[in-house]
Amino acid sequence: MCCCSNPNKDVKDPVSGTAVEPTKQLATDPVCGMEVAPANAATMEHEGTKFYFCCQGCATKFRAEPTKYFNMKHEALPCKC
Question: Which of 59, 19, 20 shows the shortest CA–CA distance to 36?
Answer without folding.
Answer: 59
